[in-house]
Write a structure and sequence with these properties.
heterodimer; A: mainly alpha; two-stranded antiparallel ribbon; 10 helices; 1% strand; B: alpha/beta; Rossmann fold; Alpha-Beta Plaits; four-stranded antiparallel β-sheet; globular
Chain lengths: 267, 305
């Protein structure tokens, strides 16, 4: 079942366009740094952009920082929001459901493929940024935003963990878009809903009035992976980030399974 | 020794939408082995909702559907024995017709080699177009691919909802012949159609539903009556009456201006025409009467404004 779903998606132009855009942006950022000179500290704070030209391995960290907040959200919402609603709009959903396959199994296959493609998007972004960064700025020990030097091996290991963490941070958005996808025949609505969750959460997270509740927002711990590059810093926020996503994903997917299991298929 | 359960048994099936619209109201229906049963009813009678409940797509409020004795629930294993074409066909537009068939079949957890592709391709009759992307197909090609999908794996029960909808006469003929062939090879067929001539031609049995309820069911010949009639327009009515009165196998001749309605009690239409010509009567029109249409209108009434 997963193989069937994967075949449908990998033979689709949309998949390549989405992954292509994800790959293109870090290349454009690298070109901008090569021709635009050294970056400055944004808002007076050091971040991975500020050190992006010090080593090629800094570039994927800068790219993850830049794209985690919006572009990656759009792409994963696209993969998840279209998963079921896309079938409904093609008129193929009812034909999948007249097969001797449970609705839960169908959802599991579709969610697996959406999650796999979402992880692939983060991986493509990172690998392309790494290749472009190394080609432009060389293979050196990285300089962290705090100004510390870190060996290539240690930096790559932490980069790998960052990719896994950032991918997991998308779980809430993926689950929400997927849930909407089981409720509507409009892919656009489900995708837009997923993007809206990420964007609205980030906006609310930036408003001081929400200080007491922001720790529960799905995007609050998205940048917690930065702690991996500050030796001696507690990784407690990353653990909280993992658990928050687990809670959101569990809730949204629970609703999706419950809803779709009882849904009358009229499309 | 107990008899094997019928291919399809519907018991008190009821579906209400939005707590107000009663789409299907306690529907009971049995389709026996080898039958080709036409499901007839005016628009909004609950035919498509019934078919969707039979396939597990819509949950009934009450009642149940048994297919070969097993209750249908979403994803029931017995759905492996059922082929269907409900509403329009649906396929992935960026994949070829053949790839679509293969992926759909494999989604059911069975190997492609078990799909009896040749039989399905005979139905589709798409030739090399099967390798083209589905989005390039015409309406008729899509419908034929949908029917091919429905017959993949030679299902024992075939459920078709308006299978010839929107097709030209040649394509309609092709699909009707394919359904007839399937039935002859032992497949039980439930066919919903608003084309009464199609039901009369293809089906052995018919069920009439109206307002979500079963009005009547039986063999097509029972519903239409055992007698057959033919409407004639001729050059000389008196001479025609005289010629027909001498022909055995004609049981009644009634005036239906500007022609005659002849009830056949064994004679074929060709014999009637031959007798008239032999009697010096010019035959201008010979029209078989669609008795099923008469029976249908009598059962559900004429809903036209």
């Amino acid at each position: 079942m997963i193989r069937v779903e994967l075949t449908k998606q990998v033979r689709r132009l949309r998949t390549y366009v989405a992954l292509g855009i994800v790959a293109l942006v870090p290349v454009l950022i690298t070109i901008a740094f090569v021709f635009g000179g050294h970056p400055h500290h944004a808002h007076g704070e050091a971040d991975f952009f500020a050190v992006a030209t010090r080593s090629g391995i800094d570039m994927p960290l800068a790219a993850l920082t830049a794209m985690e907040g919006f572009l990656l959200v759009v792409v994963v919402a696209l993969f998840a929001g279209d998963a079921v609603a896309g079938e409904a709009s093609w008129g193929t959903l009812r034909y999948l459901l007249v097969r001797p396959v449970s609705r839960g199994r169908l959802l599991a296959a579709k969610l697996s493929v959406a999650a796999l493609l979402s992880f692939a998007a983060t991986l493509v972004l990172t690998l392309v940024a790494l290749i472009a960064g190394v080609a432009a700025f060389g293979w050196h020990p990285i300089v962290t935003p705090a100004g510390l030097l870190m060996s290539q091996g240690a930096a790559l290991a932490r980069l790998g963990l960052s990719v896994v963490y950032v991918s997991w941070c998308m779980a809430g958005v993926v689950a929400f878009a997927f849930m909407l996808s089981t409720m509507t025949d409009s892919s656009f609505g489900a995708v837009a809903g997923g993007v809206a969750l990420g964007v609205v959460s980030e906006i609310l997270d930036a408003i001081p009035a929400f200080d007491s509740v922001r720790y529960g927002f799905p995007t609050h711990y998205w940048q917690a992976w930065n702690a991996l590059f500050v030796p001696g810093t507690s990784l407690a926020d990353m653990v909280r980030g993992v658990l928050i996503q687990l809670a959101y994903a569990g809730a949204f997917l629970g609703i999706a399974w419950w809803w779709f299991g009882r849904k009358d298929i009229k499309s | 020794m107990s008899a094997s359960p019928p291919p399809l048994s519907i018991e008190k099936l009821t579906k209400r939408f939005d707590k107000q619209v009663l789409a299907v109201d306690g529907l009971d229906l049995v389709v026996e082995e080898g039958q080709v049963l036409g499901l007839l009813g005016p628009n909004g009678a609950g035919k498509t909702t019934s078919l969707r409940m039979i396939l597990g797509l819509i949950r009934p409020q009450s009642g149940r559907t048994l297919v070969f004795g097993e209750e249908i629930l979403p994803g029931s294993p017995v759905l492996q024995k059922v082929g269907s074409l409900v509403d329009n066909p649906g396929f992935v537009p960026h994949l070829s017709g053949l790839r679509n068939l293969q992926l759909w079949w494999e989604a059911g957890g069975r190997r492609w080699a078990q799909a009896d592709l040749d039989g399905a391709l005979e139905v589709a009759d798409l030739g090399t177009a099967l390798g083209r992307k589905y989005r390039t197909y015409s309406h008729g090609m899509r419908q034929r691919l949908g029917l091919a999908q429905a017959v993949l794996g030679r299902p024992r029960l075939l459920i078709l909802d308006e299978p010839t909808s929107g097709l030209d006469p040649q394509q309609m003929r092709h699909i009707r012949e394919a359904v007839t062939r399937m039935a002859r090879s032992g497949t039980t067929v439930l066919l919903s159609s608003h084309l009464l001539s199609e039901v009369e031609e293809v089906c052995t049995h018919a069920a009439v539903v109206d307002k979500g309820r079963l009005v009547t069911t039986g063999s097509v010949s029972d519903l239409t009556g055992t007698t057959r009639t033919v409407y004639l327009e001729v050059s000389d009515l008196d001479l025609a009456r005289h010629a027909l009165s001498a022909l055995s196998g004609v049981t009644a001749v009634e005036d239906r201006p500007p022609g005659l309605l002849v009830t056949l009690g064994g004679a074929e239409r060709s014999e009637v025409v031959a007798a008239l010509v032999h009697g010096g009567v010019g035959v201008e029109t010979v029209q078989a009467r669609h008795r099923l249409e008469d029976a249908f209108l009598e059962l559900v009434g004429d809903h036209s404004p």
